[in-house]
Amino acid sequence: MANIHPYGRFTHAVVRGIPESFGKPSDNAQNGERNGGGGGGGVEVDLAKAQRQFGCLTGALRQKVGLQLIEIPPDPELPESWRIEDVAVIQGDTALVTRPYHQQRRSEAEALRGVLSELRLSVVEMGEEQGGSGGATLEGSDVLFTGREFFVGVSSHTNRRGAQVLADTFRSNDIISSESTRTDALWDILDSHINMDLCCVPERQFVHQSQTKTLLQLRDT
Question: Compositional bias of type Gly residues: which residue ranges (predicted)?
């Protein structure tokens, strides 16, 4: 990929296959909030379609974007492990291994750690439940990097302590959070990021005026 300032030059993409266990009833019950957008049970998953879409994604990354693809095999014991963006936030040469909200998902990072080491990234761990990052939860899909700052959606899946760990890890970047009762809190505020200086803020009933006017800075600049 061409060198696009200020993101840098991308050379690799890490993906993980969709396991046959994805979309099973027990999986839906556990993750209904993320899949269904509102909680209260799961949604039907077309596994074959999901796997075809995954194939289209990997093909586009290789052929159209020109990236070297690192594909971690699917694990039937980890139905949600294909959401690999949830278990690490990477910027520059630093990778923060996160702690997803669901206890069952936290082992998903094990296969990724070896890849991060092979890429010679500096790996920062959120750590155990006790200690400096005790009680923190963070999922990478709640994080948006604009090239200058991080936006973090704080909700039941990513809490304020997790956002603070992100701020402590990437101290050269501003960390801006928005809070919501929804699980997809980030998208309550930022519908899409257009460029470094412009984001679209949707007019929706669940977006409070105070949220759009004041985004909490978690770290002094």
Answer: 34-43
Same domain, yes or no, for 72 and 95?
Answer: no
Query: Which tens digit of pLDDT belongs to each residue from 1-24?
Result: 344 445 567 899 999 999 999 988
- For residues 187 and 178, the answer to whether their CB atoms sit within 8 Å is no
Q: Which helix (H) or strand (E) holds 211?
A: helix 209-213
- Total number of domains in the chain: 2
> Is 48 in the same domain as 114?
no
Q: What is the pTM of this model?
A: 0.75
Q: Indicate if the alpha-carbon torsion angle 177, 178, 180, 183 is positive or negative.
A: negative
Here the tokens at position 20 are: 């046959």
* C-beta atoms surrounding 96 within 10 Å: 23
Residues 174 and 150 in one domain: yes
Q: Of the candidates 82, 105, 139, which is a domain's last residue?
A: 82
Q: Could you give the 3-state DSSP secondary structure of residue 134?
A: coil
The first and second tokens of residue 8, run together, are 């840098």
**Same domain? 1 vs 57:** yes
Examine the domain organization and report whether 22 and 90 are in the same domain.
no
Token pair in block for residue 18: 């969709």
Alpha helix stretches (DSSP H) within 10-119: 25-36, 47-63, 109-118
d(CA 221, CA 188) in angstroms, rounded, equals 25
Q: How many CB atoms lie within 10 A of CB 185?
A: 21
Phi, psi of 209, rounded to the nearest 5 degrees: -60, -40
Check whether the bond before 79 is cis (ω within 30° of 0).
no
